[in-house]
Design goal:
The protein is an alpha+beta fold. The chain is built from 13 helices and 22 strands. The strands form 6 sheets. A 7-stranded antiparallel β-sheet has the order 1-2-22-3-6-20-21. Strands 9-8-7-14 form a 4-stranded antiparallel β-sheet, with no helix packed on it. Strands 11-12-10-13 form a 4-stranded antiparallel β-sheet. A hairpin with a 4-residue loop joins strand 11 (311-313) and strand 12 (318-325). The longest helix is centred in the first third of the chain and has 25 residues, at 86-110. The model is unreliable at 1-8 (pLDDT under 50).
Length: 491
Amino acid sequence: MTDQHKPFNPANPGADPTEKGMKSLRERIRQTKTTRWIRFGIVSVLFFLWVIWMGNPWLGLIWLLLLDIYITAYIPWTWWKKTKGPTRTIMGWVDAIVYALVLVYMIFAFIGQNYKIPSSSLEKSLLVGDYLWVNKTIYGPRVPQTPLHFPLAQHTMPIINTKSYLEHPQLEYHRLPGLREIRRGDIVVFNYPQGDTVALKIQNPDYYQISYDLRRNGIENPREYMEQNPQVFGDIVWRPVDRRENYVKRAIGLPGERLEIRNDSIFINGKAIPEPENVQYNYIIPVSGQISADKWQSIGVRMDDHGNAPIRNEIAGFNYYDVPLTKNMKAQVETWEEVIGPLRKESESGYYDLTGMFPLGADYGWTRPDMGEFWIPKSGSTLHLTMNNLPIYQRAISVYEGNDLKVKDGKIYINGKETEYYTFKLDYYWMMGDNRDRSADSRYWGFVPEDHIVGSPMFIIVSFDEEKGLFDGKIRWNRILRDANPDSSKF
């Protein structure tokens, strides 16, 4: 370039901005310490592996930001290091916390995270008080659908009780490549499918069960009723998929299979499948008097499960306990001197209402021990819709897959078009607990869409017995680092 073509600089008419910029860049690179280059190289390798895994080359542009942070420093990221006094101290803590939160965010989003077992639905495979490490890479981690969230809180900030996320932006569902597909028998962590709408003061039963019960009691507009009674129900809020409550159950039915439950036995495509080794059913146990808490505890029955005293059946004229037991536990109970008669399954006793199953409001005559037969939706498969089977698939089509579904004059309309067929976009799963009579699972709220799948528990980090003291066996040492998916290979 000749002199007359150089850009004019009033401060220095002879200076070439490009040459000056390159000189500045070379000087910054020359002053970078070797240790910083090593850190930058490691971060760059990890970053580009992540970009390849994400399958989005545009994310590679973020590398320029890393280059500036570690090498060129055109943006004064560390301005506070040149200050003195409290500013330097405070900003040092802020810098460390930000780095830690970014690291935790990336690990929790793409590798795995801890999860606490809050209920007994999977006893005795997983116990209340088990803290699990959930592996998100096994089925492929989801790209965060709600990217702006605090990584240490699922949906609510502790203490201040505000949302731990921003609802916008919301990204489309995308799952990165995983190690394998979900297999029957896997214990799976997933976002609660009916957790999209929540009455904050009453989380169990959920909003949809509450609405159903209110309609049965003559309330025509349950949502309006709940909003007019915030002292009972609290605020009614919506939560995005990945910010809903985490549930953990066992995968029983897989996409494309036909499932039936007959007298508590599960049939897949017409064939009975094995039960988990420690499956539990509730049994009616007639007794002559109270059984001590120590005796229940000796066979592994929690206080929440046996209660403080037996139940009185005035019609039959005897006292009984209603307790979940495995086969081995049942055999031990039958030998106790307080037991005065044969044990019967709760589902066969006639003492309890076993209705109210999925799909709510449909008149299929299904009960907890007897359901089906029905088909589990599979991605790319087309279903012939009828007015008879529509209640089973309506929520999947309208809510999980985002279609406008209406019924008019006995005809089905999807996105304004009359149709008798629908092709599913997602895979769906049927999840159940091992504690069969005390598990709120797919029998009550239906299918789990693939975009709700979080991962699978890999091992137990630590386990605390919430019914014992610190020096009285509170820490279950024998469960630390134990396999959290013990029966998955037996199906």
